[in-house]
Each structure stands twice: as C-alpha cells, then as structure tokens.
Amino acid sequence: MLGVVVHPRRKIDRALAAARAWAEAHGGRFAQVRAPGQMREVAEPVDVRDCDLVLAVGGDGTVLAALRAAGPAGGGVLGVACGSLGALTSVRADEIDSALDRYASGRWEPRLLPGLAIERDGEPLTTALNDLVVVRRGAGQVILSIDVDGEPYARTAGDGVVVATPLGSSAYTLASGGPLLSPDADGLVVTPLAQHGGSVPPLVLTSARTLTIRVDAGWSGARVEIDGQIPPGQSVEGEMPAFRLDVKVQREAATLLDFDGETLIAGLRRRGVIADSPRLAARDARAKT
C-alpha cells in the first residue's frame, strides 16, 4: 500500500493524482496516513503500519511529519517537493512516477536518521528528529540546569535551549550560533538561547551520553517544542511547576529514501544556508571579466 502525508495548503493535486495512478497501475492501494496535523483529507485513512511506503508531499515540514509517523513502524518515507527542493525532499512533484519506479525496482538506499528519545519527569514523551526546544513563554527568563550523565554542565537564565540531531543542526541551532554537525555525526548538540551573562558555549555530545534539562519553577511560563510543533500539554503560560527532560540519542529512529542525490552540505549551499564570503564572490566575478 502507498500511503501519503500532505502539506495543509500547497497545491498538490497533480502530485497526488500521479501517485494514485501509479499505485492503481501496480495493483496497490493509495491512502492517507493517520498522523497529527493531517486535517486536509485527500484519500481514505489508513494506519501507517499497513503501508509499504509513505509519500510526504509538500516540503521539509511535511517530511518530518511523515517520518515521525512512519518511524516507530519501521517504514520508509519518500519526500516529494511541491516547490523548491529542501533538505529532506528527494524528488520534485513531476518526478513521482520515475521515483516510484526506482523504489519498486530496489534502486534506492535507506538513509537512517537518528532521533532524540525524550522523557519528561521519567515518562516517555516523544522522539524528535530535528530538535527539542525549551523556550520561555512570557516576558521573564526561563531558568535551566543542564547535566550530562548526572554531572552539572551549566545553569542558564535566558530564552531557553535547543537540543538538535545532526539533521536538525542546520535549523534553529545554526540560527542561534550553534555548530553544524556532519550528517553522519554520532551525537547531538546543545545550544543555549540568549543566555543572560555567564559563559555557556554550545556543547556537542556523543550518543553514549544522557542529557538532562531541569526547568525551574517560574511565573512566566515555558513551552516545549518538538520539531517545531508543541505537543499537547507542553505549553504553560504564567505560573509553572518545575519539570525535568531526559534526552538520549535513538539510532535509526526513521528511514528516508535516498536516490543518490545531492549531499546535505551541497543542499545547504544551494539554499544559501551556507554562503561564501562576499569578498570571494567579488573576486570570482572580477576574474571572469
């Protein structure tokens, strides 16, 4: 069965028609995966565990939603860009037929993505594929204690903290002054947000470590974001009790289909996330005249 997760607003009718036609031509079914945020109905609903492959039709956010849905079931996800290619989309909408043919013939490689297994106060919360963010909700600062394997690293007062996978290190973490991790790096990166005084540099940890973030009780509130989304019950405005988050790297949390396309770094350069010094660009331009 061919499952689909869709963008809530983009024009995707042609892409869906091509995917549906391919599935029917190959004797399969086409259905929509039950996943959080799938309010736009495009096909009959189906459990992700019944799908052989999940198409994520939209952009990188749609791919993340599909990966979170398919990851626990061990299913693969093919990212289809309805717009410009992103970091996680492998093919454009007009390439669906050829991409599905390659999938059916086995001409693809699994790109195994690590995640962040997160517990809140000792209870499993969820798995993040990009990042976990603890951020202040009101005007006041959020006070955090960050431990590594039970050993104190730092106490911070500021806007919060970002914990990212290698994949997620090119997003919020990079924008906040954190390092870019190689896609095959074994670990995570912790980046404080707008720390008020002190010295707490970004910290890179291996997957063998356990990260603990203790959030102090406060009066301004805070929220927990997982891959840019706020899970139910994870945003408190006003008076807030203290809580604890424990984070471990989960290897092979999700599978993305790879067709030997561009590398992550090449994609970041194409999108302008990584850009050369303007001085060098000017020098190259002069050399061409």
From TrEMBL:
Which GO molecular function entries does the Swiss-Prot or TrEMBL record give? ATP binding; metal ion binding; NAD binding; NAD+ kinase activity
- Give the enzyme's EC designation: 2.7.1.23
Note the Pfam families from the entry. Answer: NAD_kinase, NAD_kinase_C
Q: Which residues bind NAD(+)?
A: D60, G61, N130, D131, D159, L167, A194, Q229
Transmembrane stretches, by residue range? none
SUPFAM superfamilies found in the cross-reference section = NAD kinase/diacylglycerol kinase-like
Q: Some GO term, biological process aspect, for this entry: which one?
A: NAD+ metabolic process
What residues make up the catalytic site? D60 (proton acceptor)
Keywords (alphabetical) are:
ATP-binding, Cytoplasm, Kinase, NAD, NADP, Nucleotide-binding, Transferase
Q: GO cellular component terms?
A: cytoplasm
This protein's record includes keyword Phosphoprotein: no
The UniProt catalytic activity note for this protein reads:
NAD(+) + ATP = ADP + NADP(+) + H(+)
Main enzyme class: transferase
Needed co-factor(s): a divalent metal cation
Location in or out of the cell? Cytoplasm
Which InterPro entries does the entry mention? ATP-NAD_kinase_N, ATP-NAD_kinase_PpnK-typ_C, NAD/diacylglycerol_kinase_sf, NADK
| Keyword field contains rRNA-binding | no
Q: Identify the main location.
A: cytoplasm
Q: Which family does it belong to?
A: Belongs to the NAD kinase family.
Instruction: Report the function annotation for this chain.
Output: Involved in the regulation of the intracellular balance of NAD and NADP, and is a key enzyme in the biosynthesis of NADP. Catalyzes specifically the phosphorylation on 2'-hydroxyl of the adenosine moiety of NAD to yield NADP.
**Protein's recorded name:** NAD kinase
